[in-house]
Amino acid sequence: MKPHLSPKRNTAMNLFEVGIVIAVVAILAVILLPVLATNKQKSRKIGCVNCLKQDLLAIKIWAGDNGDVFPMGISVTNGGAMELVATGNVAATFQVMSNELSTPRVLFCSEDKAHFPTNNFGGFSNSNLSYFISADITNDLNPQAILIGDSDLTLGGKLLKPGLTAFWTNDPVAWSTTRHIKSGNIGLADGSVQSTTSVSLRTYLQQTGLATNRFAGP
């Protein structure tokens, strides 16, 4: 009796075919990984913008309950943060608005590698904060004035030190490369958030109507 031969071909891949598949997968990875990384970075940047919008809203709500004056324009004895921000105590300045902020996590930008988020205001400090706040803008009479923004600012090529920094409007203020690659987000007194380059940041600074600016940052 003759053995029965199956007409089906052996479908297992040989080494050459396996090599082709591996090469194709490697090429796709090289093409797609940078795209995925870029999309992830864009998503984190959008998240930071949304946090800044919530922070601005909290300031505006607080002002609405206090004669349309921001915490930086009202004394501590009256529930504000005037003396706190004047000494550069930016964390305590934001704590004044803890009832208006849904969570202290919105005070943190996920692109910020120098600080870390927290879920409660009990031990809230500069370490949990990603944003500076202006000590001089106390109301929205100048809608284009910078009220808040990313804290990774440089002055003369050096990162601003924690606390209160005063500088002339025409000083060489710029964004660092540590967060949004030489760009950054600022929140204006009108409640809007703007993504700026270093050049456009200096343009906004010139619109504040102030000869000098005082920013309190972490």
Description:
By secondary structure, this protein is α+β, with helices and mostly antiparallel strands. The chain has 4 helices and 9 strands, in the order H-H-H-E-E-E-E-E-E-E-E-H-E. The strands form 2 sheets. It has a 6-stranded antiparallel sheet. A hairpin with a 4-residue loop joins strand 7 and strand 8. It starts with 14 loop residues before the first helix and ends with a strand.
Gyration radius, rounded:
26 Å
Silhouette: elongated
Give the N-terminus to C-terminus distance in angstroms.
90 Å
Uncertain regions spanning at least 5 consecutive residues: 36-40
Helix-strand blueprint:
Elements: H1 15-64, H2 82-86, H3 90-95, E1 131-134, E2 146-150, E3 153-155, E4 158-159, E5 163-168, E6 173-175, E7 183-188, E8 193-197, H4 198-206, E9 212-217
Antiparallel strand pairs: 1-2, 1-9, 2-7, 3-4, 3-6, 5-9, 7-8
Sum this structure up briefly.
The strands form two sheets. This protein has a six-stranded antiparallel β-sheet with strand order 5-9-1-2-7-8. A three-stranded antiparallel β-sheet has the order 4-3-6. By secondary structure, the chain is of the alpha+beta class. The N and C termini lie far apart (90 Å).
Which short descriptors sum up this protein?
218 residues, alpha+beta, 3-stranded antiparallel beta sheet
